[in-house]
Amino acid sequence: MGVPSDKRAGVEEILTYLPYFETVEEDMISRVVTQELEEDGSMPVDTIMYRNPILGFIEDAYVANILEPKYIEIMNAEAQGEIELEVLVYALPQASYQLTMSVLTCIIRQEQFAPGLWGLATKEGWFLKILQRLEVLLEEDD
Question: pTM here?
């Protein structure tokens, strides 16, 4: 089974980012901004500032309402309790739509707990692999 009919438009929307992820160069992903030392002596903090179109890609995934709310349960079931994101990413060529969207959702949502994950997913080609799988799943319904 490919992409559910109610999710097709959203998947088609994020697939427009495929050319970007095929050609992105590392220096165009993000930049690190270091805050100044505060007057109270607290340490400066590094903040990752992502560039467009990564921010547009993430926003479009949310707006299109295609993210998988039960991503942890789905990944647990598929991985039989051994969730290692990188392993799931490399298993995507055989993944179902639900697992593919679970991996995407995990990467998107986990950025808040693991700053830099979007950058890693871009550099390592994880977003590209997800989009390529979605493209195949979309074609299965044609």
Answer: 0.89
Task: Note whether 92 and 103 are within 8 A (CB).
Answer: yes
Nearest to 61 by CA among 101, 34, 90, 30: 101
Helix (H) or strand (E) holding 105: helix 97-110
> Tokens representing 64?
């299109």
* Cα distance from N-terminal residue to C-terminal residue, the chain: 11
Give pLDDT, residue 26: 87
- H or E element that contains 40: none
How many other β-carbons are positioned within 10 Å of the β-carbon of residue 34?
9
Give phi and psi for 15, each to the nearest 5. -65, -15
Which helix or strand (DSSP H or E) is residue 104 part of?
helix 97-110
The answer to whether the CB of 139 falls within 8 A of the CB of 3 is no
Contacts of 74 (CB under 8 A, 6+ apart): 68, 98, 99, 102
Which portions of the chain are predicted below pLDDT 50?
none
CA-CA-CA-CA torsion for 88, 98, 75, 132, nearest 10 degrees?
Answer: 10
Three-state secondary structure along 117-139?
HHHHHHHCCHHHHHHHHHHHHHH
Phi and psi at residue 39, to the nearest 5°: -60, -30
